[in-house]
Amino acid sequence: MSSQYFSFETVGKFSANDIAYAKRENGLENFYSFHPDFDHLKKALKARENHPVDRDLLTDEIMRQYKPLTTDPDIFERIQKLRNKNSYTIITAHQPNLLTGPLYFIYKCLSAIKISEKLMADQEGIFVQPILVLGGEDHDFEELNHLSLFGKKVMWEDHQGGAVGRYSIESLQPVLEEVYQILGESDNARLLIEKIKGSFRDQVSYGTAMQRFVHSLIGHLGILVISMDNPAFKQKMIPVFRDDLMNHTSYEIVREVQTQFTRAGFDEQAYVRPINIFYFDQNARWRIEEENGRYFTPEGNKSWTKEEILDEIDNHPERFSPNVILRPLYQEIIFPNLAYVGGGGEISYWLERKAQFQAMDVFYPMLIRRDSFQLLSEKDLKTLHQWNFTLEDLLKPEHMIIDQYLRIHGRDEISLSDEIRQLEDLEESIPNKAEVIDHALVPGIGEQFEIFTNDLLGVEKRLKRSEKQNHDRNLIRLKRIIEKLFPNHGLQERSDNFMSWYILNGEGFFRMLLEHSDPFDTRMKTLVI
Fold first, then answer.
1. How big is the chain by its Cα radius of gyration, in Å?
2. Of the listed ranges 244-253, 359-368, 394-403, the one predicted with least confidence
3. What average pLDDT is seen over the chain?
4. How many helices (H) and strands (E) does the chain have?
């Protein structure tokens, strides 16, 4: 296996914000606390000591979530270590996309694992636990109800309403059967199908099934998959919920930071509202608004006085859900976290949170840009080399790649004009010889040469047609390789599901990626496997 790295700027598919953070450009320093490198991660470790969390609550709730998932004593030992004050976490988070959705879901998890391993190896006496927060409280079903597998889009079309993590999985079974058909019957496919069937059994919620599935895939690499739709965790959010309703602190601070962010030349991120919490039950998640001292959901389902809504928050915080503005606070209040690992878009909206965290006296973690991988098969690389192409060549726009192929292979026209000219010379000399012997033979010789010429012109036409077909076939193959690397002219990691590569490479696929993971090296890593 070989690898080659490219800067985000060179690839041309990353946002300006993403490139700026990767390049550590001036203008962003005021928006984060720790420079994103390994030395500063150790500084974050020291600073985190001043922000304790309820470790017993954390450990007990993770134990409760994991008892139905596994009997592995090593996992429970890891969980128990979180009770100790010298234990920390590295967090990434994502919605429970259908069977993990795009590849970067997996890349985020592996990045968190790699950082945790590296920090533990470097710092004696500490324990660092990688965490995936599975955001099952989100209600954006259309964002996560599909996946792309070998170029085929698979969709779950059952909008049940409310938090997606609470959805029933009954209607998902035909979708899974479609996935099984696509995967086929190879040994790796059968192993993967067993994992899916084992995760999506019984009448569990979709969030629980996805927690099982991710654990079955990469739990053995050390990561814990945690649901934050948790009544005990929500108790810790009561002061934040009350503040958001009464004082609108996050609204005032984040709105001002966003103004500074745009003045610094960066795109504003998540929309901030005066109230950034939802009210939800089993089948709905409603935004809360306030007017003239009355709190209500715009759909008209709920209405409260100030006293009523504060009383419900105090007694039933599990009925309230933070939006994107408060969600980062939530996880940092619960976990002894050092760093958040995310993609370019996530890093951008986290960069708008520093002042908010300070106002709430919550630790603001280091922000680490996850790994970006690009995967290419050995077969496709061999084909590119046969055509005198490099991986750098494929970073160009598609029309330039096609032009390059034609310049190398397709501009020389196949012509038999030289051979036909030789026939013309013979057509002049042979009749002269025939004239001496038998004048009557001369007209026949001319007719014969006319037949020869027409035959050669026919051969030339067939050669040209065959050459064109060869170029057309090769151009189709070239376009397919480009499409594999940049589906729909975007990044592979934002489209393809991991299963396309897992069934070709088996259980070693994740370890291979982990081996090449290095989130502090902010370049796209092209791996030939």
1. 31
2. 394-403
3. 91
4. 23, 16
For residues 43-49, give the mean pLDDT: 94
The count of residues in the chain is 529
Whether the Cβ atoms of residue 356 and residue 250 lie closer than 8 Å to each other: yes
The average pLDDT across 176-196 equals 96
E-assigned strand segments in 58-201:
87-94, 127-134, 146-149, 152-155
Structure tokens at 459: 């051969």
Q: Is the dihedral of CA 274, 279, 285, 286 positive or negative?
A: negative
Helices 417-437, 442-485: crossing angle, 10 deg rounding:
170
Report the C-alpha gap between 148 and 278 in whole angstroms. 31
How is residue 256 written in tokens? 């001002």
Please name which of 7, 100, 64, 117 lies closest in space to residue 498, comparing C-alpha atoms.
Answer: 100
- Give kind and range of the element (H or E) at residue 305: strand 303-305
Q: Is the dihedral of CA 111, 114, 118, 123 positive or negative?
A: positive
Q: Which pLDDT score is estimated for 107? A: 98
- Please tell me the least confidently modeled range out of 57-61, 299-303, 320-324, 389-393: 299-303
SS (H, E, C) 462-504: HHHHHHHHHHHHHHHHHHHHHHHHCHHHCCHHHCECCHHHHHH
- What is the Cα 457 distance to its own chain's centre? 55
Closest Cα to residue 275, out of 260, 287, 292?
Answer: 287
Mean pLDDT of 53-67: 97
Domain range summary for the chain, segments of one domain joined by +:
2-237+326-370+497-528, 238-321, 379-489
Structure tokens at 161: 């309403």
Residue 299 Cα to chain centre, angstroms: 34
Left, alpha or beta for 293 (phi > 0: left; psi -120 to 50: alpha)? left
The whole-model pTM stands at: 0.89
Query: Distance (Å, rounded) from C-alpha 229 to C-alpha 207?
Result: 9
Residue 281 burial (CB count, 10 A): 14
Query: How many angstroms separate the CA atoms of 167 and 141, rounded?
Result: 10
Token pair belonging to 512: 């291979």
Tell me the residue type at 187.
Answer: D
